[in-house]
Amino acid sequence: MNKSKKSLIVMELVLLAAVILFLYPIFLVLLNSLKSFKEVMTDVTAFPAILHFENYFYVWNNINYPKLFLNNTIVTGLAILGIILFSSLAGFMLSRTKTRLSWVIYIFCISPMLIPFQTIMITLIKFLNIIKLPNNIWGLGTLYWGFAAPTAIFMYHGFVKSIPREIDESALVDGASTLRMFYSIIFPLLKPITSTIIIIDVMWVWNDFLLPLIFLNGTKESKTLTLAAYTFIGQYVTDWQYTMTAIVLAVIPSILFFILMQKNIVKGVTAGAVKG
Amino acid sequence: MFKKGIGKFEYLIYVLPVVVLISFVVYIPFVMSMAYSFTEWNGISKAARFVGIENFKLIFTEDAAFKSSAVFTIKFSVLFILIINVLAVLIAVMLDKKLHSTNILRAGFFIPYILSLVIVGFIWRFIFIQGFQSLGEITNWDMFSWSWLGNAKLAFWSILFVSIWQSIGFYIVIYIAGLQSIPYELIEAAIVDGAGSVRRFFSVTIPLLMPSITSCVFLALTNSIKVFDVIVSLTNGGPGGATTSITYDIYKEAFQNNTYGYGTAKALVLFVAILVITLVQVTFFKSREVEI
């Protein structure tokens, strides 16, 4: 017994050391974002003589950080709103009506999970030009409504099955119109799966790269945080202190989101992976 | 009972929006892709010239870039799926023991997963180029002076390593959830029967973990076969195209070489490949799960 306890302690220490080593690169990025160019070149692992916060002022203004942050918030917020609104309605209705038509529409809705984005991205851009969807962050946000719908509908569809039918039937008898019934009675019951979908999609939309890259292509006014960091680092390849600062600024929102929502995120991705 | 309560109009309100949205971003472009894959089209001119199955012929006979990107992607996917799942199961089993710092450890492994893959690529570009130089000077270890991004063979392992670093936390979390759902009585029964810890792991834990393994292998497959972002920021497909994946090849074809028609043909080949692999995999793994 004593021996197994000892080995448990040894294992824990090994794991702790492993995690520290695992996260060391992130620490190095933070450290070097506060150094001068010369200090970065001499020794990456050394601490700076003084903290060069001016790196942050420089990059902050150069990439117009507040504007980028706002852009990302708009894209993500708009995307999530539409995803939840449309997918919950469809997932609920398709799950509740057991007709042939509903089954066909359901298969139609979830099949895109098998189509990789790269297969359609080229003609997607062409098609979006034809229908004149504006090449800005608002247009970008609405695109996710369709892209996220298959997974979201799949998850809602499964979850609705676990809600007893009697609940919505009694609401109907009371004479509530279905849309009102949906938002006042059904939607609150979907909360667990809604929060799972929100967590997964926030992490995806906030960090997405390829779709913004090809859709916002070239427009200077509207960029996402990841996209701006990408262009900035492309321009300042060898100015490590600035690229490190850009990286820190780009990942700070994600890290804060993780710290605040850690339990929900872990629960959300687990539920999403097992059901998705 | 319920069906009587809703009319056709209400049904439409619920269902029509997603049908339209999905058609716009997936089905219409998909059908267009099929049409354009039989053409020569530079994306700018209105007219695309019909060339029949010429594009597909080219892909499978003459295109060396496609062949090398396919080999890269297959090699990458197989190793990614194997390594990340083995490591994640092992770490998850350790974290599942009653440790004081389980939560901190789990969070630590999970952190890279919340970062954008492009940014992760940049972080490691810095470490491989600048960080390794300093670490080499401090430790005098040979490996730090190797050209991890400039040498074709090493660059492959760099991409693989960074991809695993970024997402292993995700797989660990799923496996921990899977382990926690294994009833302790079964482990106990195996102990009573005199099974050692290695035996218990292979004869009790792994079979009961099969549903999680199915999910994780499936997710690892769909993610690795589409590897793109990390490559863009870490190696840019280089050196000499050695780390160009199929998706990156398709991207270059369309958005850098302006050979849109040819690019869509490649994209369709990718789709068919993924479809076949997915179907095979789902049927294979579903037959291996055990019921408690």
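Chain B has a mean pLDDT of 88.
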